[in-house]
Amino acid sequence: MNETTKKANSGISGYFHQIFQSIFPEPLIPKSEQERKRYLLKNLILHFRPSTVPVKTLKFSLTWGLGGMAAILVLLQFGTGLLLKFFYEPTPVAAYTSILILQNKVMFGQLIRNMHHWSANLLVLIVFLHMLRVFFTGAFHPPRQFNWIVGLGLFILVLIANFTGYLLPYDQLAYWAVTVSTGMLEYIPGIGALLQEMVRGGSDIGPATLSIFFAIHTAMVPFGLIILMAFHFWRTRKAGGLVIPRAPQEEIKEKPVRVPTQPNLLVREVVTALVLLAFILVFAMVFNAPLESKANPGLSPNPTKAPWYFSGIQEMLMHFHPFFSLFIIPILMMIALLILPYINYESKPSGVWFGSFKGRKTALVAVITAIIATPAGILADEYMIDLAAWMQGVPVSISNGLIPFMIILAGSIGFYALIKRKYSATKNEAIQTLFVLFLVSFIILTATGIWFRGMGMKLMLPF
Amino acid sequence: MPEKGEILQNSKKASRRSFFNKLWIFLGFVAFIEFISVVGAFLLPQKRRIKTGDFGTVFEAGTAEKFPIDSVTAFVRGRFYLARLEDGGFLALSRKCTHLGCTVPWVSKEKMFVCPCHSSAFDIRGEVTGPPAPRALDIYHVFIENNIVNVDTGKRIKRSEFRAEQVTYPKSV
What we know:
The complex is a heterodimer. By secondary structure, chain A is mostly helical. Helices cover about 65% and strands about 0% of the residues of chain A. Chain A folds into three domains: about 30 residues, no CATH class; about 260 residues, Cytochrome Bc1 Complex, Chain C; about 150 residues, no CATH class. Chain A has 18 helices and two strands. In chain A, helix 6 packs across helix 7, helix 7 runs antiparallel to helix 8 and helix 17 crosses helix 18. Chain A is flat, with a radius of gyration of 26 Å. By secondary structure, chain B is an alpha+beta fold. Chain B has two helices and ten strands. The interface between A and B is medium-sized, with 30 and 26 residues.
């Protein structure tokens, strides 16, 4: 210990200085360029960041901060969820009342619940948008292929978290939405009935269901999220961080210009996080999380809808036989997402939005096609087509299942071929265009299920 | 002195080593299967002990005369409807819609069960008169002892359509 330090550590102030030094051995505010670069390495929370980042990846419109926002929201859910656990009782008898007490008697109880509810819904949207961003900027090509799969795992965990959390208030909305959603499981061939009984903990929704869902929601999913998030960040770092954005015809620079992470990236991240937090707070202050009357197994409300993120599948259920809408199509969707990074692409353009100028054009073609075809299909099937009645002798699973499925499959293949030929698109562009077609269709189906289905699940305007 | 690598490559020792390696891997695989089986068995739904008078036991609905011909009586705790058909026979119908599980109310004006969730419709015998329900309402076994109608809610019977054998008739006709 040299003379300066001995002097600084003398007396009462020196004593506190010593304690401070023991907690923070490194300077809290880096002064020199070298100190900035080493700052992150010496920080527990930040040491997984690189010391410098390519300056072009700082652009907000590259990622829109979506991945970071998702991480912040997950942490927020851990925090608010933890607080909620102090008051929530996971039994059918006490659950609803415990929420009433939380909202009405506990200081800031309503606010915490609101924050938890709106963050949950926003998280599904943000994770979905993040997936779309990764896809459209080509950030799933090697070496990022497996990270896409890890990301899909995270997406599924978020959906499971939302679904299991949905039941916990045990009001009419919760009870019947989960009845209908788990009711869909029965249509899975072979294992369907057993799967439904395992998920529900019995033949009906009851105390067993609540216990199972609570365990999944507050323990299994957080555990899974922490592991997968760590893995996801690790793989991102190993891949060299974000893809570097460039215009379609721009050349890839060998050595992009880099800047220190602290403060350039960190400040941007902190600002985004704070703005997001502020937004959630204000939204939670203004809008209350819904809570209907206590669950009544003897009375099903009209209409009874699944949670909004399942509305797309529910809407498909209105048009196709359950075997296709609940089993075949979701499985195909899952398989398609899983193999997306592993298709034998001709080129692997990372960092270019939609891959190329032509990719942007054909994507627009797909958007327009979907906007015309999907509502037309919905209306036609609702009011004009009745395949089951036209083909009386044929079993419903074929007339209202296999046949419309084949028609749509043929249409999709035809669309793919048309895009390839008419626009001489590459395999990348054609697959991307097909993805956009299905994406926009699914979004329209989801919107229909949420806003355009009323009493008796009849099609109607939302006002 | 032969190189260490050469000794290790010696066929006798290599085969013993590879045998044990394979054995470890096999045992690891067995351990994994055991783990999955234990967790699976743990998570399987349990047969819950049911209190008498609750859903899952035999309900005494009442004497046969109490129920008029061509009527439907709701039993809330039993979670079933007792239908008395035109020919005097009894049918105990589950109140769960066979589409996605909503509770179907009996609309006496229409003489039909109409599901509020997706408008599935069933007649007094529980048969589907309006989609999207895929099959008739499930039934419970009805037996009549000493002129008292009993409904066994312990076992739900799935059926695809109505059949005459499902109806129970009182002894005195």
